[in-house]
Amino acid sequence: MSDRGAARMTNAATPAPAGPGPWDTRSRALLPGDLAPPAPAAPAAHTAHTGRPAARRGPADPVKALLHRHRELCARAVDPLEIAAGPEAHGITDRTAARFRHRDVFSLAEELYARAPRTTPDGISEPRPREARPADARPPWAGPSGWGRWTALALLPGVVCSVTLLGLDHSGGPRRLAIGLAGALALAGALSACLRRGPLRAEGRTHPATTVWVYGLLAYLLCGDGLLAALVSGGPDGPWPASPALLVAPSFAVLPAAWCAHLFSAGARRGLADSRALADFAAVARPLLLTLVGLFAATLTCLYLLAAAVFGEESGGAHGALPSTPGGALAPTVALGTLLLLGRLLTVHGFPGAAATGLAAACALEVLSCASVLAGRLPGCDVLAVPVRAVAETWGAAAVPALACGAAALGLLAHATVALSRASAHT
Question: In this model, does residue 288 exceed pLDDT 80?
Answer without folding.
Answer: yes
